[in-house]
Amino acid sequence: MTQASSTNFYPVILAGGRGTRFWPLSRKRRAKQLLPLNSEKTMIQETVARLLPLAPTGNFWIITNEDLRVPILQQLPDLRPGQVLAEPVGRNTAPAIGLAAFLLERTDPNAVLALFPSDHVIFDEEKFLANVRSAINVASSGPNIVVMGIQPTRPETGYGYIEAGAAAKSGELHVIRFTEKPDLDTARKFLAAGNYYWNSGMFVWSARTLAEALREYLPATASILEKIAASYGTADFDATFAELYPKCENISVDYAILERRSAEGEGKSGIFCVPAEFGWNDLGSWTALYEHRCADRTERQNIISSADSFTLHAEGNFVHSDKFVALVGVNDLVVVETDDALLITTRDKCQDVGKIVKYLDEQQLEKLV
To answer: What is the CATH number of the domain that holds 39?
Structure first.
């Protein structure tokens, strides 16, 4: 395979999540990736902007859902409507990225594509671009799969882990195995070992490599995706997509391909890890956003988004409200107000906010989700 140029590189951005742990600000039609949580730009606008040095606008693909397709096109007016695909139903990451691979395999034999989440924060964008370029070079040099690994800073049980082995010639690391969301004791062992990385969810591979892997490990789903890809650009595409895509297996690319391929052994699987040097935060909850915005955690400061506020004997609180906010004698609270809802919880319970959305779904309280 020839070395990929910018015209052969295709960023694929997954933007179909609901961001339920950011309720009540995040909703079906205004999900986390469409919110300006990190800057004046929304999360998906930041994601596209940081990748533009690597690929022309016409090479971007966004995979989302029907609720978010129109808002995304409004936020990304430089993309053609055909570049934003709305899944008829969610089928996890393997069918989503697989569809992009089969589409590109038909049109560009040298295509290298990369999977990016739409809602992560990158601290050093120059180092990010350098790391992605390294991954592109590895992916375009053979039937290789590259994952961006994050150096762990704590024994986190909510992330998948990559066990890295020896370095390859150009500096990337051979991958030994993947482990999904270990228990706390195992996560502590991984942190102490020093050769484990968090799985960032950012993968790079050629369209041909990914398509062949899907044909090997998910043959039924691969056949469906090829039929959908063959109809792209025709009058039958929407109907074909709606009819066939729900028949795909509901499985992540990690389980479908990476874990199975890594079982072939270090040096044989063709899976490599590029350790990230750019600083990363997946902003998975209100607590993560508090920590991201907190300039000096040792001072246990309050993060308050209202125009004016008063605090007395109050520390470590996060408040999002348009009203005047007064905090007296309370610590470590998260308070988020919208026009129709009010969330009050503590920073250590923010992982449970998604359960509120589950309850609202069960009660069919559509106006609140």
So the answer is: 3.90.550.10
